[in-house]
Structure formats: structure tokens, C-alpha cells
Write a structure and sequence with these properties.
homodimer, alpha+beta, Glutaredoxin, four-stranded mixed sheet, 11 helices, globular
Chain lengths: 199, 199
């Protein structure tokens, strides 16, 4: 089955939009989605940004909230901005990576995004992450323990380095097997069409 | 007829994409397009940027060129990046404003964008602007002379101030009569649908 990499940061509002539709779109196109959580923070820092551009440039941040609200409404998705933006997605991303080998990275990713941008929850709160795990039928205590092992920490660090080395500068980013690169929820359909075309 | 404002900078690649399709899309929807050329330079400067973000962040700039090339190919548009990016669009924007009252702002806007991103011409060259005027049947000498009058200079300055005051931070931006605001060529269809809906 042709593959498409889905690079996302748990703090990213546009990643939320893509996470909630990528599996259905890929299934229709008979494409496999490879989930690639990473951290945008170090990449923004390398660009000289201390926080999200939506905070650095308030007009852009205000517009983003309105833009997401409009798109979410059309797609029937709830949308509420959490108190703190961007949330630190470190623990969520480590948990997601723990779920990769165990086969629950996709539903966990959706559960976290739903809690964050649908229900306005703080995803740095271990209780919120435990709820997301329980919602998808995963033993929360065991998963939380495994997510802080040196192996998982190192995998997230390495994945973020790969993102940076590949020139990823924002999220979501979709990368086809031939290296073709698509940035933004706006480009998801195009990325899927490309992946079908090269297969 | 319902109206939609189209705010654009002649240096902007995504504005090129929108300029080449907005009139056809608006005509189909029975909407009037109000052309609003302005200068992004002073707005970027206020954000602390000395040039286009596509130059400040090279990975984003490289991606933009690829993204535009893909979209242009799908739409049957030629695309070649000019030697200097971003071009200084001051003279082109003043000329466009001169054409507003005379009724040729739309075809002139398309002619300049075609020369710049279709044929890789330098739009700071008065010869290139004169050709664009001739192509649409306008007396180039008279138009070039009128475009440097204090009245036109002041109109562009004021229009750029209005853009800034309205919170415009990039181009193209589409603004509906109720103030609803859409940023990016990606949002043109949504802006048109919105305009039809509120009419």
C-alpha cells in the first residue's frame, strides 16, 4: 500500500484539523498513513522564534483562531482554544510514539487533539492524557510509565532532528515516499492525490 | 451586486495565483471585486521583518516556490520566479491605482503579474510596465506620468495604512462587506461563498 508521512505537533491547531480527517481520506484512497509526531519548538527556536508565530504576530494569531473556527464548523468539528497556547506537547508526543509499536498511535492522536481543541483541556496535565488513553482502551498507567523511558525520549528527540534535517518548518507537513513535501491542512488532498499518482 | 475586496501586493506569488482567477470566479458568483493594491513592505517592517518571510526563512521560501509551481501547473498558468524577489511593487501599485478610476485596474493587475511570474520580468523596469499598459490598450506615457502625481502617491500610502489598520498581515487578503477576513489564495473560494451568503 502506498505510504504518506503525517508530521504533526500536538500544539498545532492546523494539525488538529488534519488529524481528524487524514485516516478517512487515506482509507478511501487506499494509502497508509505513517504518523510522525515531532516538536516544532526546537525548529521555531532555530528560526529565531521563542514561541508560536501566532503569538509573535498577534494579527496572524487572531486570524488563525477565526480561520480554524470557520473550517471546524464546516467539518462538524468542535473547536475551543485552550487557555495556554501553544501547549507543550512533549509528553503527548512521547506517549504517541509509545503507541506506535502497539498500534494505537492514530486513535491516541485523535483523542489528544479532541481533548485539547475540542474540549479545551490542558494536554500537559497527566490526568488529561490518562483520560485520552482510557478512552481508546489503553492501560494508562503502563503507557505513561513506558513513555518516559530513555528509549522513547531518544526516539522523539531523533524524530524532531529528522524533521529539521528534512526542512520541515511547520505543521502539519505531509511527505510522500518520493520526498514530495506538502505543508498545511490545505494541502492534505493534494498530498493524497500525489501519493496515489506515484504509487 | 455584493462586493469583495481583494488586497494584494505585486511582489506576492500567492497574489499572482488569485489575480489570475478572481474575476472569473466572482463573475460566476455575481460578485464585484474591488481591487486594493497595497505594499506589504511597511507591514512586514512593523513585524520586525526586513524582507519577505520567504527570504528570512529559506526552507519556507524553497517550499513556496515548489508549492506555487504545483498549483500553477494544475491551473495551466506559467510560472517562473524573477531574479529579484520580492520585487519592489511601488510603481506597479501606483499605476494600478491610476487605472482604478479609468477602469483598467483589473486587466493591468493581471498583465503585471503575468510579466513578473509568467515571464520572469523585472516589474521595477518602466519598460516592463509600459509593455503591460500597451498590452491592455492604455497609453503608457500618459499613465506613467499620472502615476507619479502627489495624489496617486498619497492614495497608495493611505491604502497601505488602511491595510495595516485593518490587521492585514499578508497577501492576498479578501475582505467581505461585513468585515469577514480571509488570508491566502487557499481561501478565495471560501471568501466568495461567504460574500454570496451575506448578500
Amino acid at each position: 500500500m502506498p505510504k504518506l508521512e503525517f508530521w504533526y505537533d500536538f500544539a498545532s491547531t492546523y494539525s488538529y484539523l488534519s488529524a481528524m480527517r487524514i485516516d478517512a481520506a487515506a482509507e478511501k484512497a487506499r494509502i497508509e498513513v505513517i504518523y510522525r509526531p515531532f516538536l516544532l519548538g526546537p525548529i521555531f527556536k532555530a528560526q529565531g522564534w521563542s514561541t508560536s508565530p501566532f503569538n509573535l504576530f498577534p494579527a496572524k494569531g487572531q486570524y488563525m483562531v477565526r480561520d480554524i473556527a470557520r473550517l471546524a464548523a464546516v467539518r462538524g468539528l468542535p473547536f475551543r482554544m485552550p487557555e495556554t497556547f501553544p501547549a507543550n506537547g512533549l509528553q503527548a508526543a512521547r506517549l504517541a510514539l509509545s503507541g506506535e509499536t502497539e498500534g494505537w498511535i492514530a486513535p491516541f492522536t485523535r483523542a489528544v487533539f479532541e481533548a485539547e481543541f475540542g474540549e479545551k483541556h490542558d494536554i500537559t496535565d497527566p490526568g488529561v492524557l490518562a483520560s485520552a488513553l482510557q478512552r481508546i482502551g489503553v492501560d494508562a498507567k503502563a503507557a505513561l510509565a513506558r513513555s518516559t523511558t530513555p528509549e522513547i525520549k531518544e526516539r522523539l528527540r531523533a524524530q524532531t532532528e529528522v524533521a529539521s534535517a528534512r526542512g520541515i518548518f511547520g505543521a502539519p507537513t505531509f511527505i510522500a515516499t518520493d520526498g514530495e513535501f506538502f505543508w498545511g491542512d490545505d494541502r492534505l488532498d493534494q498530498a493524497i492525490a500525489w501519493t496515489m499518482h506515484i504509487a
